[in-house]
Structures are given as C-alpha cells and as structure tokens.
Write a structure and sequence with these properties.
Elements: H1 2-15, E1 29-37, E2 40-48, E3 52-57, E4 60-70, E5 73-78, E6 90-97, E7 101-108, E8 115-121
Antiparallel strand pairs: 1-2, 1-8, 2-3, 3-4, 4-5, 5-6, 6-7, 7-8
Keywords: Isomerase
Protein name: DNA topoisomerase IV
GO molecular function: isomerase activity
Length: 123
C-alpha cells in the first residue's frame, strides 16, 4: 500500500517536463518574425551574428547590438536610435525551441509588460 501511495505521489513529478530549449542553435543565422499590428500581418527579417542584429522591416534596415546574458537570454540595443523610445534596450528570453523556430518573451528593460512571439530560422 505504501508503494502505491509513493508511486501516485511521484507520478505528477515525472509527468511534468520542461519544454525543449536548444537556444545555442538560434544565436546566429537569418530569421523571420511575423506579427499582427492594427489588424495587418507584418513580417520582418533579420540576420543575427554573435554581437549584431540587422533587421529589415517595412523596407527600412536597422542595426542593434546583441549582448547575451546566458544561452537563452539576450539584450538588444539599437545602434542609431532616432527617438527616446528607440534608446530603450529590449530584453529577449527564449522560452522554447523547435527544429527551426523558437518562442520568446520580450519587453523593454525594466518594464514588466511582456509580449510573446515566435521566430522562424531561415538559414
């Protein structure tokens, strides 16, 4: 009886599993991010190296520095901000990964409001 009780108590612990996070696979490469803004589906593409991210959105290209905090977290900061809002760094956390995509949370550094998205790796 004790063995059955221990088994029943241990079962929930065994059945819980963390989502896969192979973040190192997504540190560099060419990526695509699609989001809906004001009811319109908009897509940006970007190339990320170890220290830079070059993004093209709506025909405009922008560059940001990339500072990795750990394998699954990094901070983006625009190189040439034009507004006060663009001066704010963006914190990115990879939550889970698949073969060619990852799901992440992002927010301005110091802001508690987080947004979620999914990025697809093209190359």
């Amino acid at each position: 009886m004790k063995k059955i009780l221990l088994l029943l108590l241990a079962l929930p612990l065994v059945s819980c599993s963390d989502k896969e996070r192979n973040c190192k696979d997504f540190k560099t490469g060419t990526f695509e991010f699609t989001q809906v803004i004001d009811g319109k589906k908009l897509t940006s593409t970007f190339v990320r190296t170890d220290s830079l991210q070059i993004e093209t959105f709506n025909g405009k290209t922008d560059t940001a520095t990339v500072r990795w905090v750990n394998d699954c977290e990094f901070v983006l900061r625009k190189l040439h901000p034009k507004t006060m809002n663009e001066r704010k760094a963006i914190s990115m956390t990879i939550l889970s990964t698949d073969k060619n995509s990852y799901t992440f949370d992002y927010s301005f550094v110091g802001d508690s409001k987080k947004h979620r998205g999914t990025v697809t790796k093209l190359k």
